[in-house]
Predict the 3D structure of the following.
Amino acid sequence: MDEEKDDATEVTSDSESIDIDESITETYQEKRDTYQAEVEGLNIVTAGLGGLDQIDMNYQVTHDGKNTGGVLKYGTNNVKVFFKNKTSSTITFEPLVLWGEYDSIGELQTTYFQWCDPVTVAAKGQNGDVLIIDYKVKAPNGTDFACAYWAINSNYDYVCLNPIAMRVDGLYQGQATPLFFQEAGGGKYIYCNNREGITRADLADGNNPYGPRLLMHEKGLGNGEYEMMVSHNNNTSMGIDLQDGSDIYYDNSFPIYVDVQFYDPYGTATIEIESAAFYIPTGKVDPYSGEPMSYACIQAYANYSKMTIYDLTINNPYTPQPVLRTKNSTTKYIHNFSENASLWAGDVFTSGVYTSVPNAHVMYMVLKFKIVNSKGIEVNIAAVKDNGGGLSNRFSDYRAGEDPNVKAPYYKDYQYKGIANTLPLVETRLIMAFNDDNSYNSRLPVIVFNEFERGGVKVDWWKTQINPQNDRYYADHGAQSDILKFRYNDPTKYEAYGNSFSGAKDGTWKFDVFHSDTFRYPNYRSSTSDPNFVLPRPNLIYNPAQGFYNGSSNVFDSSNLANYGVITRYNYEVYNYSEYQRFINFNLETSSNNVIVLRNPSDPEGNYIAMYKGENSSKVLDTFFFTSAEGVGGYNGVGIIVDIILPTGNAGGMENSIVVY
């Protein structure tokens, strides 16, 4: 759960630490004698009055900080157990852990019970209706160690009919694996798509009626690895009234340059650009379909990733083209700011790649670079009219460092900008198992965790690349943890608060799944307006007449996030415990032109297959990978790494499913 959410109760204490070498049996001997439970595998036979369907339980496991896919690993595991109240009343119970190890014939031996103190969860829908307990589970090397979790009331009734169990490198058949993503870290991701359509009010030259301003302005970039994505439309036939946000229309338009400047006021740093791409898809024709070129810019992504990308039939490839100039290196563009305090990204491309953007056209730029010896580099993104003088005439009215009060404001247009404290990669591990009980054409379940289901919920398909709080369609199926958190420093944010706002103000926009996007232009700004508050707990709305199909009640206040340019990585293991061979389909249903990369988990940096899904006017379900798995007695496991990317220019909301036949 995010640190900014306070309505799920979290418990962490030494009393929940489980270690097979500890002698905890004496501590709980009296309750063990009273309980008189019988053990059969990991299923405790009811010893009290019976079972009550009051609590749902779900879990997440990490080992060395990494998602395990729901299984235990040798050494210390961190197990987060979620207890979710299903009733309209408060529930008090005692969490119970059973642990032990299996012998050579599959019988659970040396079992121990560990009780926790009684806990209370609030009624469903109230703050505190989800209790989270963190356990440390130490699995000794060489053992077939297992543990399970229950919730028991004072009458020794189960209050959860579906307890959870896990073992070392083993998933129990029929148990849904927890789905949660983790950020890769390792650097930063700079993203700019606001204002999405560049009007005259956004220009950095004398054509801006309000005076020159930038699209992005951030200081203090330190040493490290970076990736960056910039995408905008040329809407210079329009302007914006900055008092009420209304459109202003002009009789003419003009091409513009959109570029990124790196500026080092200290002259100490070096920037090493490893990869780059620039593309304008508008007005081009796809060489294979004959249709207008996809806004997803597959050719540019091939150039940037240096991968050949095929269609789903492994035909019609986009082959990477060399578009990055080299300097001070045979493979990179290396610039020393001691030689020139400023570097424009447009200068690093080979001849003819970087151009001005015609009116009503879209541009796309991506960069991968490293900064060393930095005392604080400034990054600026600006758009100016192409006056016909070539690149040397791009920015005649703006000079970095000369205007300490330069503005690069955020204006709400449902697109965003900022810096995420991670490289653009999120990763999960999904271990799935099925048997003869899984019928033909059945989907394998996962547990998703989001603001609608903070304690987790089992689903047989899930959504990524969308903010569940901003989703009108099955918002409770959203993975949520895949969405990056962006921060954008903007002093003009102070002006976006109402005149009578009494809370704490700050100059940093928070674009994530937890905060609002409620910027209002001055004429529509209330006296108490808060442009970026923590969202209330959402409800699901079903109202087809208004376009809501189990959609979020926070749609109108939340951020429209889609993780553009971010690699969503799955480490899959799927096991067939049927008596016969079964087939497995990996499906993706979208209208968007996703890039999908398949890798061998035994050699993830080796051979790969990269594909593009194709752009459609409505959602299309495609099987991007299918395979078979032998049943019991044969090779019954399938492992594959899957990367799914939404490059740019298409809608978010990727619907994922794993189907067995």
